[in-house]
Amino acid sequence: MERLHWIRHRLQRLLPGDGGRGWYSPASTLSTKRSLDPPDSPDPGGRRLSGKRRSVTPRHAPGQSQHGSSRNYQGNGIRTTKYSLLSFIPKNLFEQFHRVANLYFLFLVLLNWVPVVEAFQKEITMIPLAVVLFVIAVKDALEDYRRYRYDQRVNNTSTSVYCGKQRRYVERRWAEVCVGDLVRLYCNDIIPADMVLLHSSDPGGVCHIETANLDGESNLKLRRVVRDLQRQGLDFSPETFSSRIECENPNNELQCFRGYMEHPSKARVGLHIENLLLRTCTVRNTEMVVGFVVYAGHETKAMQNNSGPRYKRSKLERRLNTDVLWSVALLLLLCFTAAVGHGLWLNSLKNPFFLIPGDPPPLLAGFYMFWTMIIVLQVLIPISLYVSIEIVKLGQIYFIQSDVDLYSEQTASGVQCRALNITEDLGQIQYLFSDKTGTLTENCMLFRRCTIAGVEYPHHDNAQWLEQYEEQDTHSRPHTLRSRCSRKSLSCRSLSCNRSSVSLHTLASQSDTASQEPAHAHGAFSRTMECMVAPDPLLQLKLQELPRPEGAAAAELSYILDFFLALAVCNTVVVSSPTKSQHVVPVPRTPQRSLEDMKLLLQKFSLPRFPHAPSSLHPDTPAPAQSPAPSSFPAPSAEGAGLWEECDDDDCGEELFYESESPDEAALVQAARAYGYTLQARSAEHLVVALPGSAPLTVPLLHLLPFHSDRKRMSVVVRHPVTGRVVVFTKGADSVVMELSRDDAAADEEEEHQAFIREQTQRHLDDYAREGLRTLCVAKRVLEEAEYEAWLKKHVLAETSIENREELLLDSAQRLETNLTLLGATGIVDRLQDDVPETIEALQRAGIRMWVLTGDKQETAVNIAYACRLLRPSDQLLTANCESKDACEALFSRLSEEIHRWEESQAASVGGGGVSGFTLVIDGRTLDWALGAELQGAFLQLTQHCRSVICCRSTPLQKSQVVRLVRDTLGVTTLAVGDGANDVSMIQVADVGIGISGQEGMQAVMSSDFAVSRFKHLRKLLLVHGHWCYTRLANMILYFFYKNVMYVNLLFWYQFFCGFSGSVMTNSWALIFFNLLFTSAPPLLYGILDKDVSADALLGVPQLYASGQNSEAYCRTTFWLTLLDSFYQSLVCFFVPYLAFAGSDVSIFSFGSPINSSALLIILLHQVIESRTLTWLHGAVLLGSAAFYYGFSLLFSVLCVTCNSPTDPLGVETHAMSQPLYYCVCVLTTVLALLPRVSYHAFHNTICPPDTVRAGLMDRLVSKEYWTHVGQWTDTPAPQTLSVNADPSSTTDRPPDHHNVLS
Amino acid sequence: MMASSYNAKEEDGHHSGSVGPGGAGAVKSRKPDNTAFKQQRLPAWQPILTAGTVLPAFFVIGLIFIPIGIGLFVTSNNIKEFEIDYTGMDPDSPCNMCINSTTPCRCSIPFTLEQPFENNVFMYYGLSNFYQNHRRYVKSRDDSQLNGDKSSLLYPSKECEPYRTRNGLPVAPCGAIANSLFNDTLELIYYYPNKSSMSIPLVKTGIAWWTDTHVKFRNPGGNNNLTAAFKGTTKPENWQNPVYELDPTNPENNGFVNEDFIVWMRTAALPTFRKLYRIIQKKKDNLTPTLPPGNYTLEITYNYPVISFDGHKRMILSTISWMGGKNPFLGIAYITVGSVCFFLGVVLLIIHHKFGNRNNNADIPN
């Protein structure tokens, strides 16, 4: 029962999103690669719709019978099970016999049916096959049953579908939903099928969906009602809907949907992904939506994207396979020897009457004997090893996942093993490729400083505050960190539970009873402290002067205002607040304020004119500075912390949560908020922004040109709330925006000013980059109405076009984003994750070469590298930036020479070889050259002399190319770790892909082999679990080979005394069970639980990792030594009893009895010798195995009178065990067989102990001495570390009380 | 801390729509249990084999093995054994004439025992180069038939082919093993110093395992009327008498439970083997040895052909000890292994003193 539970448990782990997270379970493991290269992958953009398409008409519509056009499409029921009750046995068997191992068994079974070669009774040879088939079948059945139950649950979920006959919505099961149905969903409902959004209760015709079930991203995505239908307003009537939808055939592209809707009037409206509600997503923030099902069941995009767990082949397994081939060769050799021997033996006999007449001539008999021997010696090929390895890996995964050290309180998740069979690769990593953002850093962006109009605002308070926070952080981590990550998964449902129930009550009561009162009470509680931005005093001061700007100050002020307005509006942030279930502006209301208020505001803001309007360059005198509400203005305050809570409007004091796809957007909105520019709500067409001291203003949002990786920027087109003009705000990467803001045409004063701003900004940007900040530029463009109209026309065209829509939209956006006026730039800090420097140092000392591949700027990357101690101050930086291939080639050779020279001088002075302290920094363009076929070699040679490599400005494709190049050319084991979609390709290419479940959604995790929540977990995962998994598995595999060869050779030696006739000296049951039952459990336990070195030692002395990297535990030498030892042991185990019984009246089975039993003892004790840990579990299993063997053979020899015809073992064991000779033989055999191995270990471990043994010995010391030894060890650098950090505390990462011992 | 616990909940349930204020109450943490087993911290014994830890074991083994070896060696040496090859390959041998004889042939070989044989003396016949362990030979029997199963008696197992039926009748006992039953008769005659002779009484029973005679081998239909029981069967091709007339002197020792037959049916493990033939029981008075030294004659009824496979036939007289028959190997092996262990222990001791302290005081006991 426990085992069953365990299997279940691991199945749950196996499918990462069990329990509601994923409505998709892997349809079949066969289609693992489907999502990567779909069979009919359409080339993006170029695909003609006319090729394959489907046409869907509403089922309820008049004139459409129930068997309308939708009949041909699949229903919504899903079946992810592989088998049905009836088909299970044949189908499962069919699948199982696709495995080579099972075919081998089958071959043996069939072979045994051939009378001339028959070795055992037929039923006995079937046992191994039956056992293996049974075990796998049970596993498959359990898996399938789980899927079945899951399908049932999904299919039986009810939803409301419009019924044409009853003219109302009726409850239906999901499975009964058909293509062409109209489905009504409410907030928080899960979408049952892919449907086109026809109606939303939202007046703006939008609806939010959460795609967490699909891709793990918890931010809300906007979906729009089909454009024409929106006008129908609130009263959407399903009866009258009779349009036809034409769309492409089902595919797995989540980001793409093309089609059009044809109304009865033959008018066509284009459809795209924004109109499609995807199955398994959740409706959020929208009361009610109605959708029109276009894809159902397995044809939905969600189902098409299903992919099962990943199967990779580990390095160890590849090695194992070659050794299995060796044992095949050995088997053939033994069989051939026997065949020849039998032939010769037959030939030498004249006419023995004990031979059964009718024996074939010697040659043929030898041939038959060959096959008989294959049956007899079948165990030599360790087929059961494969099953055992699978079981062991499951056990290893179980322990990795249960490691409490790898559990992160912050994200409430531990390590997730998604690939089941590469645990041991974790212990062999030689190259580690890491993303930077979100992997080394938190990817939790904090606004740090900004430059506006060429003036830098350092935000010193902010910096101090951050430091303070970090200190605080260590004390009050649980609370603060929790609130930080809560941002990640906000949604209207989780909002209310986002804080403790106490505060929820407080909030509720407050909003009920005193909605007009400012709700200051809860402000301090729930606001994420980290998001706080302490405004810069200077900037604050300038803003304060707002009412009375003069001259240049006014111009600057307008820059400042626009800058913050841009920060507040130029984003895709979704606003949510705990007190409103609907945080989208319900109705785009025109001024809610009284006209008087409005007037005042306008007066206040009309003063600073925009530079583009020449008439307002020198503004008039300010309007009445005494606004009716002076106190409402942000007052500069000594405590920065209070600043952003200033407003006492009823809408203002309330908590707002900003959710965004990229964390820096939220940080910027947060920053704008600190200065009083609060984004309060957004709808598809409007934004509500509270400006300092004013009531919230509605900003009409005309267009949103979302971020695109090619453009590297995003823009919004809004009507300026104050001036009423159309303004484009653009925010993007500095290189791009600076380029676009260059305008050579005009050279007037204003332009000069711009040029000055650009120059200053560029300088500040460089500073920021040096500081390791992420930079973003903000720019704007004021459009004349005519200009706007002209652009709009083309844009609408682009939007409505069905074909090439993406490209046209891109063009359209690029047309708009020209002639920009640079407003300023922001510097955002991305803090390093906890313990990253320590982790990197440990990994480097473990001999892992670390490469950082980032899309960031070079300066930022280098800076972060210093911060995380990837680079040390003493390191020499080699920078490779070149413009052409030739330059690149020259550079490489120059750098190589430089290294060479340095190394020579080093070798002369120190005499130590190894890797130098060089670090190569290479940028994207140079990397392109370097990855080319011609320079690959030079590049790799160069990098091999460098301890680390930093690739900046690299694209996702380059990342994967780099990994592939290193992996394939150098033949090393690689690990890639990343957190974002841009790391997916790299993660998939590497031998081991690790995803960090961070802020950027789950794509990286979905494609990874292991998912961790923090970078620091890599340390234990690799150094401890990796090492253990590798050593355990390697030792287990060697043990398996040993065990099989040792036992099988006993049978082989006997052939020399039975005329090579294929006789065995044991009854065949014991023979078959020997491997299957008696000696199968200990190696499994050994593979799961053995610890050669304690976790503490592995963490304290990372150099121990090298043993796995160099494959020390399982290499050619150890394999052949093991084989040699097993030959020796089998010789001893056979010939000691032989000599003891030679010439006596011993019968076959009586002869086999001591051999078998001493073989068992030897094999078990061999395990004890090889084990490095023996717990009570080991003891129990070892004793259990021995007891099982003796119990079985004794019972068998007592009870089996005629059960095993023709040769019954009745009385054999009892007789043998009643004789002292039996024990004499067993003891002598066991001791003699194990003597060499024990002596070898004793000599080796004493004279030249391997590192792992030294560490194991160290573990036994009392703690004080222990740390002295660790210190000694780490002070004498292993070859792979060149310089050892001088800081003793960093070398060991131990509790403080140990430090004094070290220093 | 309530605020900190909601996340686990949230991760788990995506389908629950309504979350009330009490939602934070029911929390299921995914945090792994911090138990010794799950965290792999079970108390463990860590055997690291170093010179320091191994050398006591070596000394102990040496000290135990050497005395055992001496004991075994002495025991083996005290066993008296006499062996005589009566194949008759040597032209001078009295049995040479019987080699090619087709009719029953008698020959007698005189021999002399130098030493007295005390206690029960076991008389064996030995065959060499006889592969009783050949795969197909071993299987050529039907244990059900031998167990007295009536249907198997008349319809023997296929394994017996081609010794399953003869002349249309089922063979009882079937199979190659039974067919090749050893059928020489050996008798011992002792010549007193006064030249008078005496046939030494040979006991035919008690030579097979108890389980064989009482459980494994049974006559069909009880032991009352064997002739009737075996009606409808025929004797194996090479046999002179049917199975129910194997021992004309003792009706209890006939049929499948005939002990000579049972001993033969327990196939030997090695091509050179001996099988217990008769027991010469010790004298009641315990004063005279069972076989006093002196002249004996082995009277052989020579039936069994071994020339065809270059085999040899021997007659062995042996006393027996607690460790079985005479075999000096075990004693020597024990002494050797014990000495090697002792030697290794000394070497390890030296190594331990030379290297042991270098390795972080490896001898600190666990």
From TrEMBL, chain B:
Residue segments, region Disordered: 1-32
UniProt topology in membrane: Multi-pass membrane protein
Family label: Belongs to the CDC50/LEM3 family.
Membrane spanning stretches: 48-74, 329-351
Primary location class: membrane
Gene name linked to the record: tmem30aa
Keyword set, alphabetical order: Cell membrane, Cytoplasmic vesicle, Disulfide bond, Glycoprotein, Golgi apparatus, Lipid transport, Membrane, Transmembrane, Transmembrane helix, Transport
GO biological process: phospholipid translocation
Protein's name according to its UniProt entry: Cell cycle control protein
Species per Swiss-Prot/TrEMBL record: Denticeps clupeoides (denticle herring)
Domain of life, per lineage: Eukaryota
InterPro entries per record: CDC50/LEM3_fam
Compartments, as annotated in UniProt: Apical cell membrane; Cytoplasmic vesicle, Secretory vesicle membrane; Golgi apparatus; Membrane
GO cellular component, one term: Golgi apparatus
Coiled-coil annotated spans: none
Pfam families named in the record: CDC50
